[in-house]
Design a protein that fits this description.
By secondary structure, the protein is α+β, with helices and mostly antiparallel strands. It is built from 31 helices and 20 strands.
């Protein structure tokens, strides 16, 4: 300051001509600096304007035109999903950009402007409901509706003084202006960016003026070298100070600065930091080398226009590529620096790093896109509702239609139906209690319940949600997701069903019965009757005709029992052929009536069958628990004893019926005649007498001869009646009839004594028979006798696959196989003693 004051005093002390020249030149520099400051101000305001227009355009693009089209500019809009979503979008825009005070949508009707939606909460004093006329509208407010062009304007209304940015919203198909999107900035927020840049320009101008003064001072000092050395020294010192001031301003500027003067370029620290290069690297490569290729052509065009004086300056957003390959976004302003007397043009470039701003805008667009995609692809209904009696929906995603059958608009503000009405009545109170706990404790809800769809059907859903609180801790809304879990519930019910039901009959199983025993063994279920049933002859049917036929017998019996049970009775299959019925609040007289009803239904079923082997014959018994002190297991034991007593009385007759049916089936399937059976029985007994068998042995021998082929009832008819020789696979199946006959005999107490003989009928004397491969006297005697007689009689009868042999040929064949297939002693007795006597008769 002392140097500047001394410089001015020197000027004052000079001649009038020198004074005029100095003040004229200083005035010119002052004007130039003022113009520069004014230019920076105007350019910064223009930048603000362009950025505001871009921001408004991006925000407007995020508002769906189809939602705006349905707004009626009346109170009806408040109930529309589209209004709620549009208002929420405006609120998000205002919240994301703190410099914006209001965001809103105008629509024009009959030459007047009305609010369609704004960003203010409903309870705000500045809130404008849909359909409110904007009475302060001026010509500029209506201009975008007419010419379709965006506009930035200063405005004043009942809410204050603003800078407003208005963007027309056009229909994509017709190009018609359907609405105008607007944002309002306070004057202070609008000019904040310009003020900051202008301040920097003022600092720079001061530096330039100081530099100019320093230069003038230097020139004057050099012209006055004859003056006192002290004055020259002071001038030099002053110049250094001013240059230092300029350098300080230049280097510490918060924006990048590049000055190109006399073919040389200077760059401050911020510029080098933004582009990531040193002075030497920048000067060597040139700015074109590290400008992004996509931006290069545009900047070259503007730079050429600037050099040709076609434009005064230019501003643009561009990308620099740093040495590591990463990209930085910058807003640059390039303007000429004109100095009189200089042939070459100097240029000033101011660079601002806007990477974070660009990224924020991109993130906002991506967030909006992701939010829209997320909502449209949620596997259910996302919602926001009030915490009231009706669960009034403020927002419901598009998944509402698939979940409930109602469009989401039908639920908003309970327009067509309240969500509470969709909750199945048994779950309403429980769900409200759970939400109360969630709200009180600040936890999250996770509940399963049933809803009633538009078609009247019930559907299982899972809801997960939480409460949203305002700053005072009051519940502002409930938010969450509701998804369809009907398929999962069905699978769970199927698993429960399979766990509790018998897979064959469909009635309950033993596991479920045991649980029910615990449930009904209480005072309130007395008297409690227990009935036990056991099907007679199932094993015999299984062995004779296969398990499929035995299963039919069990299934049909289960159906009869189930049909005879009343509501509240529990019928279960507890074993292969055993059933138990629990009958709560049933005395012994009623239990006996039910037992007689089951027997009657079995008799009715049997009357419709032609084959007695498939008759249902079930033994039943019951007992009744009268007092709570009686153990239930004791009652079950009494019912079981009762059943077994009846089983003993019914067993013999049922078995004889089944055996008779099996025997008839044997003759029918094997096509053996009654005469063959009689001859076989007669000749076997005669041979047994010849071998001195006891009467008891002869009786057993007769039974063996009668039922020797009983196992053939389990062989496929196509194998039994095949006219040709059996192939290997068929022969293996055919040989199984010995084992089948053995199982049938073992399943009947009356036939157990002959089971071993039936199994051994096809064993050979030499050990090459089947199924056990035993030999000689290991083969039971009665089996050896019947095998000889059966072979002889079979050879003398016609069969499907051959003609009968003569008696002589059959005898020769028997004799030929004596000692290999047959017991030689039995063959001798049969051929020498039995057959001659048989022929004489």
């Amino acid at each position: 300051m002392a140097g500047a004051r001394s410089f001015v005093l020197n000027i004052i002390g000079e001649s009038t001509k020198a004074k005029v020249m100095f003040f004229a030149s200083f005035f010119i520099m002052l004007v130039l600096c003022s113009l520069m400051i004014y230019y920076v101000w105007e350019q910064a305001v223009e930048d603000t304007r362009e950025e505001a227009l871009k921001l408004a355009a991006v925000a407007e693009a995020g508002i769906a035109e189809e939602k705006v089209n349905v707004l009626e500019l009346s109170g009806n809009d408040l109930t529309k999903k589209e209004y709620m979503e549009t208002k929420e979008r405006l609120r998000e825009i205002a919240a994301a950009h703190k410099e914006i005070r209001f965001a809103y949508l105008f629509k024009m009707k009959e030459g007047k402007i009305y609010f369609a939606a704004d960003s203010e909460p409903v309870d705000s004093k500045d809130y404008s409901p849909p359909g409110q006329e904007f009475t302060e509208a001026v010509k500029e407010d209506k201009q975008p509706f007419y010419d379709g062009q965006p506009i930035v304007m200063n405005s004043e209304d009942r809410w204050g003084t603003w800078v407003s940015v208005l963007i027309p919203m056009k229909d994509d198909d017709t190009g018609e202006i359907i609405a105008v999107f607007g944002v309002d900035y306070t004057v202070d927020m609008w000019y904040r960016h310009a003020s900051a840049f202008t301040l920097q320009a003022v600092v720079l101008a001061l530096g330039i003026l100081l530099l100019y003064l320093s230069l003038i001072a230097t020139i004057r000092m050099n012209a006055s070298m004859r003056r006192e050395k002290r004055k020259l020294s002071e001038a030099n010192e002053r110049l250094l100070q001013e240059e230092e001031l300029f350098r300080t301003v230049f280097e510490q500027s918060p924006v990048g600065i590049s000055i190109n003067s006399d073919g040389k370029a200077e760059y401050n620290s911020m510029y080098k930091n933004i582009v990531g290069r040193s002075n030497e690297e920048i000067n060597t490569a040139g700015w074109k080398a590290f400008t992004h290729p996509e931006d290069l052509a545009r900047e070259i065009e503007k730079y050429e226009q600037l050099k040709a004086d076609e434009i005064e300056s230019y501003t643009m957003n561009k990308r620099y590529i740093k040495p590591a390959g990463d990209t930085v976004w910058a807003n640059i302003t390039v303007a000429p620096l004109r100095f009189s007397g200089k042939a070459e043009q100097d240029y000033l470039c101011i660079v601002e790093d806007i990477t974070e701003r660009v990224k924020a805008e991109k993130d906002l667009r991506e967030s909006e896109r992701s939010y829209a995609v997320l909502l449209s692809n949620l596997p259910g209904m996302a919602y926001r509702c009030k915490y009231d009696q009706e669960w009034t929906m403020m927002f419901a995603s598009e998944g509402c239609l698939e979940l409930t059958g109602y469009p989401s608009a039908s639920l908003i503000n309970n327009k067509a139906v309240a969500f509470n009405d969709l909750i199945s009545p048994p779950y309403r109170d429980h769900l409200r209690e759970e939400w109360a706990n969630v709200v009180e404790n600040g936890t999250k809800l996770a509940e399963e319940y049933e809803i009633i769809t538009v078609s009247g059907e019930t559907k299982w859903v899972f809801e997960q949600g939480q409460a949203i609180y305002d700053e005072s801790g009051k519940v502002e809304a409930l938010e969450g997701l509701i998804i369809d879990i009907a398929d999962r519930k069905r699978k769970e019910e199927e698993i429960v069903y399979l766990n509790n039901h018998d897979f064959l009959t469909g009635i309950y199983n033993r596991r479920y019965l045991e649980m029910e025993k615990e449930r009904v063994d209480r005072e309130g279920f007395l008297p409690l009757s227990v009935m036990i049933g056991d099907i007679n002859g199932v094993k015999l049917v299984n062995d004779a005709f296969g398990h499929a036929e035995g299963d039919v017998l069990i299934i049909e019996t289960a159906k009869i029992i189930q049909n005879c049970c009343r509501d509240g009775d529990i019928a279960a299959r507890t074993g292969g052929d055993e059933f138990i019925i629990l009958m709560p609040q049933t005395n012994s007289e009623t239990a006996n009536d039910i037992m007689e009803q089951i027997k009657q239904k079995c008799e009715e079923y049997n009357r419709d069958l032609s084959n007695e082997a498939y008759f249902i014959n079930i033994s039943l018994g019951f007992a009744t628990k009268e007092t709570i002190d009686e153990p239930l297991e004791g009652i079950v034991k009494l019912a079981e004893d009762f059943m077994y007593k009846r089983k003993l009385l019914e067993h013999k007759s049922s078995h004889s019926v089944i055996l008779s049916s099996i025997k008839a089936t044997m003759h029918e399937k094997s096509h053996e005649t009654q005469e063959h059976a009689e001859r076989l029985t007669y000749l076997s007994k005669e041979l047994g007498k010849q071998m001195k068998l006891s009467q008891q042995e002869l009786d057993v021998l007769e039974l063996v001869a009668t039922l020797h082929d009983i196992g053939k009832v389990g062989i496929d008819d196509r194998i039994l009646n095949k006219p040709d020789k059996l192939n290997e696979e068929e022969w293996i199946k055919m040989k199984k009839h010995s084992e089948i006959g053995y199982r049938i005999a073992m399943s009947s107490p009356d036939l157990v004594p002959i089971a071993e003989y039936i199994l051994s009928l096809h064993e050979r004397w030499d050990g090459n028979g089947y199924p056990q491969g035993i030999k000689e006297e290991e083969i039971p005697l009665l089996s050896r006798i019947v095998s000889v007689v059966d072979a002889y009689d079979a050879m003398t009868e016609d069969r499907a696959y051959r003609k009968a042999m003569s008696n002589a040929e059959a005898e020769m064949e028997i004799k030929k196989n004596a000692g290999s297939q047959f017991d030689p002693e039995i063959v001798t007795q049969f051929l020498d003693k039995v057959l001659p006597n048989y022929r004489r008769k």
